[in-house]
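Protein in question quoted for reference:
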Amino acid sequence: MKTEKVNKPGLIHFSDSVIFEGDALTALQQLPYESVQCIVTSPPYWGLRDYAFPDQIGLEPTLPQYINRLQTIFAEARRVLKEDGVFWLNIGDGYTSGNRGWRAPDKKNPARAMSVRPDTPEGLKPKDLLGIPWRLALALQDDGWYLRADIIWHKPNVTPESVKDRPTRAHEYLFMFTKAEKYFYDQESIMEENSYGRRNRRTVWSVNTQAFPGAHFATFPPALIEPCVKASTRPNDYVLDPFFGSGTAGLVAQQLGRRYVGIELHREYVELAAERLKAEEKAIVKVAA
């Protein structure tokens, strides 16, 4: 797969779907003002995965550093979002490490094993739930985002946990933010059906997790992204995912007649997404750090 490399400072203008290979913040800083209608993303969770990448998001030494780093990235994303745009943020939670510095594999989930983990945050105790989704949501609200909805992503097929002293976690959060008080929202496109007819979409979405061959870790299920894109965009609008991964947000945008802008740091995932989206060579742009 060949890529075009961008070394020049300044904004990168695009006229069709595109994948940027590079750091999320660096790439966002080069995107034009108000150039996308919708953002749908799921950043790396804190202390839960080691992607074996230098200075990776999610392994900051402290929780405030992680929150601050995402605030900085999403502040730049806010500049890129149109005034009437919507930002959908999926974020999961975790538990304190107890200062062990590592995590053993779970019999039912071997991928959870880690050789490095951040220390327990100051003020919290061993076995405490971190509360990251709401810490981040409130920090973004303080930054000026309008927090419009907290959606519970219920996972009917959640991976079992080997725990005996608490319930198994079967949900994550999907927050809906807007840049302004008034924004584009197509309520009709995501109405629910029940025995009485159609009704406004509720805030608990039951969507099975869905693996994608070639991806090492969990990927967005398309059914979680579809309502976000339908409600927040019109045909040919741009959907941005600054943590593109295997490109599910791009795939959904493509299937719904929208265009996508993906940003992904890992070359392996850029190649995976490009193949999945059948992206032409000219649609891959490497952004210099």
About this structure: The chain has one domain: 4-287.
